[in-house]
Amino acid sequence: MRSRDFAPAGESLGVTRAQHLIEQLLRLSRQESAAPAASAEPVDVAALLRESLGQLMVVADRRRIDVGFDGTVTPVVSAPAAELRSVFDNLIDNALRHAPEGGVVDVRLHEVQGQPVVDVVDNGPGIPQEFMARVFDRFFRVPGTSAGGSGLGLAIARTAALRHGLRIALSNRSEQEEGGTGLIARVYLPA
Ligand SMILES: Nc1ncnc2c1ncn2[C@@H]1O[C@H](COP(=O)(O)OP(=O)(O)OP(=O)(O)O)[C@@H](O)[C@H]1O
Ligand SMILES: [Mg+2]
To answer: Which residues pair with 79 in a beta bridge?
Structure first.
């Protein structure tokens, strides 16, 4: 499934830089608040990914990114849907912003050694090995990063993932069998 299969997001969903920063800060403060966590519910991960992609299509369209979704399994994860969204929204947002203009982003839901995983793959520059651990720190951005951002996304995503038994692993395509450059953000879902 490619970009044209997603419902076009209206301008009201437009993600301006200021809106994006406010959204990130709200997500961070919700994570930090002492309020009891939202209750877990069974979440259809394929449907959640489609929603996330639909909402981020405005970013994809603006940058003419060719977005693909491929799901070969249909896992259900028990967690608050909003927290799962904050994991995938941030990874997909990163792929869309760091891919070159007119680039390609693929989201793949499949199984690796019997465990369901979500791969978010782009064709941007990837992340230099020496910064791989630090990109999860709040406000850290790889020096020279051209795309705008606040440096909060991966910190938010990792906190939400850990809370609900998911694990995020980043690797560069050039270090895998896949050719070309780009980042592979893999999320291991609870078995
Ligand atoms: N897909 C990617 N390709 C290349 N670099 C990436 C990618 N994802 C993250 N990075 C690098 O990691 C840094 C931290 O990412 P993170 O999502 O935490 O912050 P951000 O995207 O800069 O800002 P925010 O998500 O808060 O808007 C980015 O600034 C960028 O340098
Ligand atoms: Mg980000």
So the answer is: 41
Structure tokens at 3: 């970009």
Question: Which of 94, 105, 137, 174 is the pocket-test mutation for ligand 1 (most atoms within 8 Å of CB)?
Answer: 94
Give per-residue pLDDT as tens, 31-51: 888 677 778 999 999 999 999
What does the pLDDT look like over 85-117, one tens digit per residue? Answer: 999 999 999 999 999 999 999 999 999 999 999
Beta-carbon contacts of residue 189 (< 8 Å; ≥ 6 apart): 45, 75, 77, 115, 116, 117, 118, 166
For the domain that residue 121 is a member of, what is the CATH number? 3.30.565.10
Predicted pLDDT of residue 15: 60
Task: Give 137-144's long-range contacts (Cβ < 8 A, gap of 24+).
Answer: 138/28
Residue nearest to atom 4 of ligand 1 (CA): 126
For the ranges 25-29, 181-185, 186-190, which has the lowest average pLDDT?
Answer: 25-29
CA of 154 to the centre of ligand 1 (A): 7
Number of compact structural domains in the chain: 1
Ligand nearest to the CA of 133: 1
Name the residue with tokens 């993932």. 161
The parent domain of residue 121 ranges over 3-188
- Measured in residues, the chain has a length of 191
